[in-house]
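pasting for ref
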Amino acid sequence: MMLAESTSSGTTELIAVYAAVVATIVLLWDIYKHILSGPRIRLEVTANMRIYGDPRVSEDDLFIDATATNVGNLPTTIRVLGFRHYKSWRQRIVGRSDCQAAIVRTVLQPLPHILEPGKVWTDLIQQSPKVERLAND
């Protein structure tokens, strides 16, 4: 009789360990999904862009090309485009910018703009001499 009880107890413990491992994996998966849920924006910015062939724009004018892609699973609204300038990496780490600006007028698409999951928003912003000075500091 002792052998039967020992085998039954070992099987129960094995099932309990298996259930605990599966429950832990499911919990970690849910945390991972929660962190990645919602809108997630990937922003790419290219400076010193020129427009050729448009009579409304001088070929000497410089623009900043901004492209935002919603790689998340929920829509979001782009209300304003802005930037912050940091004089050093230390200021960047602590979040202390010496200059902040909001760009309220874009060239191609008016703001606000609803960005659905998987969709791309792109626009041009006039590259002013002040922005160039900040970029070179």
